[in-house]
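tool_log.txt
---
The assistant was asked to compare two proteins side by side. It first ran the structure predictor on the initial sequence, then on the second. Raw inputs and outputs are pasted verbatim so the downstream comparison step can read them without reformatting.
(1)
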Amino acid sequence: MKKSILLVMLILAVASISFGQALIGLAMPETHVQRWVKDGASLKAEAEKRGYKAEVQFGNADQAQQNQQIQSFLTTGAKALIVGNINDGVRSVIATAKKDKVVVLAYDRIIQNSKDYDYFITFNNYKVGTLQGQSLAKALNLDAATAAAPKYITLFAGSITDANAFFFFDGAIDVLTPYINKGVLKVVGPYPKSSKDTANFARITTENWFASIAKARMEGLLVNDAAGVTLDAILAPNDPIARGVIEACKADAKYRGKLPFVTGQDAEFASVMSIKNGEQYMTVFKDTAKLAEAAVILIDQVLKGVKANAIVVPGAVLASGALKEIGNTLVSSGGKFYVNTYLLDPILITKDNIRVPVDAGFYTAAEAAQITR
């Protein structure tokens, strides 16, 4: 009996050592959005803290390049992949990973049109948009606005290859639509009533989230659709796009005295400083350090054989009800296939609570000092 117990203990110990030495491949999409650099570093640190080997690669917004990086992880024997993909062209290597019995976790971006993985972790991205819409409704005092003196807004969305962009927009436009219907808020430029209005939605999207593309589109709006009005607000889905449209507005004499209220997301240092200085109105803080920690905790449990219905991720909830749609991998093709999706909560940041990401340790000491001084 004692020999049997000792044998079981030995097997468990060996399994634990084996898992601890396993390689986790971390495939991040790009470096031109600051948060992905931080995510890569946080994921690596969390994995190594738990005894895993971890390697980070950045795809430079090029899916073919990212596929090569993921294939390299597989070739070198990775037991798990955490993937922030660029577009659904990643499907081919995810299919290879499944054949190799490698655990795949889609990280903050769902892998569209694939049934070859089982886990996705992100923030409640519909709520991100809801916070953006609510902040504009408050800033513009839309509840007191009248159709005789309407407010004017123009709309931007993220990359059409990123499923999160759809949820961000829908969360925001669902808040703003009642005011548009009342005539107290007027949309300048393309107006998709939801992301399902694909033709108009495509017109407001921003390829690969490039701020330069958003800035150029804003410059075009200012001399065309928005030439005859003064914009009161701009729905921008993330911080680089927000800074791009603000830069375009600052070059227009009409807005040198007063900028429109501009939304954002990711609490990037430059945008938080912009909020402090009265330019960008708000951002949404998604504590990506907590997301990275939750992702590695999830992967760790899967690698150790914990069944999906028994996985517990502190600070995250398993998507259910209407939010389950966030985990539908076939959303772009109109089909239905749901992966196990874990959601963390985002936080609205304005000038009034600008210390929240600082207190969370989101910035370097030098950056934190600039924000709080």
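(2)
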Amino acid sequence: MTETYKNPLQQVIESRIAIIDGATGTTIRDYGMKEADIRGSRFADAKKDLLNNGDLFSLTRPELIGDIHRRFLEAGADIIETNTFGATSISQSEFFVDDPREHGGRKDPEFYQKIIDDKFLVDLAWEINEKSAQKAREWADRVGNETGRQRFVAGAIGPLTVSLSNSPDADDAGFRVVTFDQVKTAYKQQARALIAGGADLLLVETIFDSLNAKAALVAIREVFDEDGLTASGGELPLIISAAVGRGGETMISAQTIEAFWTAVRHAKPFSVGLNCSLGPDLMAPFLRELSEKVDVAVSCYPNAGLPNPLSATGFDLGPADMARYLSEFAREGLVNLAGGCCGNTPEHIAAIAKALEGVAPRKLSEATAAENCCVESAV
């Protein structure tokens, strides 16, 4: 005898548009953090500035990250992201390892192999991911229990500070600073730690280089297979989200929307979508194209317009602006999950959630819904 289990998030998007949280980095600005705050005693002697390494706040100021989660959840977010956008050994090396280019050298696969093998960086990346997921899990469960509405933790997997698609050397088009296997290894470490910390789903986001994303997807598949999650039915749902330029291309890899979908659909994601980019107005035509072409749920969480250093949030659009744009997308039937990226505070998410309340989600085919939601388990 078998029993069919339906993914709870699938149940949500069948009935309404699920709300994704906003930007942790933007919201941190509300707290007036300084260099000393992110260093704490643990990183007091670090040689490089750390304030732009916001993932470290999960270790040095976990109460701050918890408060940000609380604010987004109380604003109406169904899904909160872990504070792990740059929590790989590769990205963390930017803050803790001397740059060989400053001494006449260059970054290359030999340099990054040392990064991948560096115990301090590997352990640090694991700790950031696991602690961040645990903190998000704590608040998702707390607010979920208080409100009687389940909330979800998305393990955020960012794009890295290196590219597999392009050479940084104008005289050597074939040169790459890092190898596919090195990127895959870093992502496997991150995915395992996010799962260990209690993430409900994995979010490969802000994709500017589709080959980097492919390495992340291969890494996740290997983690699922090697750790027995495939056989046990314990695979986490996967959301894949790209950042696009003015022509709808995935930034460095320059793939069109259709080419991007072709490149990642093998991973059988729960959802695919667009985030970050140039703001909702410039994202609109590419979101429409994506919604027409994909056979899974569609997510959308744009930047609050273009960067503006004179704005309180650092971006042009306020809560009412973002609510208007996301409402238009929703009423066109383009989205199943919606929220905000850079420049979006809890106030933005509250406005978006209110504007989308009662608006029907993008329609999914019955076959898609069945594939996304259900596994059979023996009873």
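---
observation on (2): The chain has one domain: 15-359. The CA atoms of residues 49 and 299 lie 34 Å apart.
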